[in-house]
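Tutorial, part two.
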Amino acid sequence: MNVFNCFSLTCVLVLLVGCETTPAPVVGATGLAEQARIGTNYGGGIIFFIDKTGKHGLIAAPVDQGAGDWYSALRLCADYRGGGYSDWIMPSISQLHALYQRKDAVGPFSTNPSIYWSSTQGAGGAEYSGVWIHDFPPYGGAPSEHASPASGTNNFNHVRAIRAF
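Running the prediction step on this input gives:
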């Protein structure tokens, strides 16, 4: 099981345990091997997740790509070219929750509103069942995640692109 196809928040939380204890070797600007850790600038963004092998993980763009409806947000992620990379995507709800858990290492995030799109669609598809969103409360409040007609594709929310390494 990995964070790339896991839709269970429990799964993500289990994977995050100890993720900072095994640094991943990466090549820095000097070409010398460095140790990657949560919060390290790498691959056009900031590392916010490292898997148990220490060889793979997820990188978040250092800033939001903007805000808009869900389809516009998907396009903002696909068009993003941070660090010269073209494989940026909108995070799933599990990936977005992992990003929220490391928001202090990656931030800043929007505070007004503080709602971010995910790529995870409701059971009936985006148009019929809505999409999952995640609230990044600015002052330490509990995050909320939900999929409902209120998270329909026409709402205006923020998006932060991610990519894998």
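Residues 45 and 62 are 5 Å apart (CA to CA). In part three we will examine how such features are distributed along the chain.
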